[in-house]
Amino acid sequence: MNRLLRIRKVPTLLRKLAPKGSLAIHEEAWNAYPYCKTVLTNPDYMKDNFFVKIESIHLPDRGTTENAHGLNEEELARRDVVHINIANDDEYLSRADIKPETSPSLFSSKKTGRGPLKDNWRETVEPVMCAYKLVTVHFKWFGFQKMVESFAHTQYPRLFSKFHREVFCWIDNWHGLTMVDIRAIEDKAQKELDEARKNGTVRGMTA
To answer: Which of 42, 43, 132, 192 could tie 68 with a disulfide, CB 3.0–4.6 Å?
Structure first.
């Protein structure tokens, strides 16, 4: 999947100083479940000086795989491991992100009987899967590198937490669907998102 994004949810200072057109981000995504990859670039302005790569591998364990992405020694030394507990309302989220209908600690699925997720859910629930996400940020812009790295370090855990909380709490909407059903929903959602991007206002998370 390829698409062009107009990024408005970036640090305020960077948004004010960025030249016109420099926040047009090109997104490419590949889905070969259990492995997925998304790459964000800015080919018109920053070229090779910027990319964000998000790789996901989904494994049937409880977060016990130490090197799910097969990193080498140098990459492991630079890696910062962040554990995300989707049942923890106080972790990474802003107040606006927390809603009773998408809080796994409160939700109970009518279809599957899963939930609510209590304190020790990561050690006890069945079935279980861990999504291992590797975020690589490359940004070379004098004076802004640390700001962008810090922004990514706080916003991606928040994004992942919010998204997977919603996925869990919406289980009754997707449980039992076939891959054909899911692809049809994805296509419909993509069309609606593209239309909203053209004609609507910014929705969703803000930094």
So the answer is: 132
